[in-house]
Amino acid sequence: MPFIPIDDPDDPRIAVYRSLKATNATRSLDQFVVEGERLVDRLLASRFPTVSVLLCDRHEGRLAATIPVDVPVYVAPSAMVDAIVGFPFHRGVLGCGQRRPWPSLDEGIAAGHPGRPVFLVVCPKLSNPENLGALARIGDVFGVDAILAGPECPDPLSRRVVRVSMGTALRLPVIVENRLEEAASRLADAHGFELIAAVADPMAESFDAAPRPRRLALVLGDEHEGIDADWLARCHRAVTIPMRRGASSLNVAVAAGILIHHYSR
Fold it and tell me: Is the pTM of this model over 0.85?
């Protein structure tokens, strides 16, 4: 494996790793960055090609055997890596992946035998990338087939989403649909999905009383505003998680964990 020493933090070969906090808006880039040994391993095992790896020199000997010989490995002193990424970095290794599109929504639904059960999570809008990462991790655990995200959601391959998902965002399709409303209508009309909205309204139907359709699209709301009226009108029913009187509402990822666990049984 050719290890390539880096002695200048402005070396153009490691530009993708530079000032990561300042360049967290990665949606428009054709590459993305993951942090830490475990996520680099999961990048290497994923469908996304690994473009390069950046190592702190103190980890060089330990990680050398885990990186394929055709992947360029840049090695820099730890203090320089801190200067490159723009913050104290203790994980020792970063990886750069090449974006590849997921199969389209219609292709994914068509895969497998006709009429098979399909479970989708639909997020018209999320503000916090950590919540999208948590949803990917929860969905992976309980067998969600895909997450559909609107254009106002965070980039599914941003550092924070991938980190919180522990790399499951590299395995579970998180498909950004720029016209998510049209995609939702197509799910219902052409593919027989029932759209179920998760709401905080105590007057809504309790989630554990609602039957689980064979083709389910669970619609989750924004952290602050919930599901807007247009989306509620698209859904076939609304369910809620009963809470004690006076309790605050649940974080969207926590609520999603309860609902996805229930509907995946």
Answer: yes
State how far the alpha carbon of 140 is from the alpha carbons of 62, 119, 132, 168, 170, in Å.
30, 11, 12, 7, 10
pLDDT digits (tens, 9 = 90+) for 146-164: 999 999 999 999 999 999 9
Residues 61 and 125 grouped into a single domain = no
**Final residue of a structural domain among 98, 126, 151:** 98
Residues 64 and 126 in one domain: no
- CATH code, domain carrying 199: 3.40.1280.10
Task: Say how many domains are in the chain.
Answer: 2
Kindly report the number of other CB atoms within 10 A of residue 233's CB atom.
8
Q: Is the confidence at residue 179, as pLDDT, over 70?
A: yes
Structure tokens at 101: 């599109």
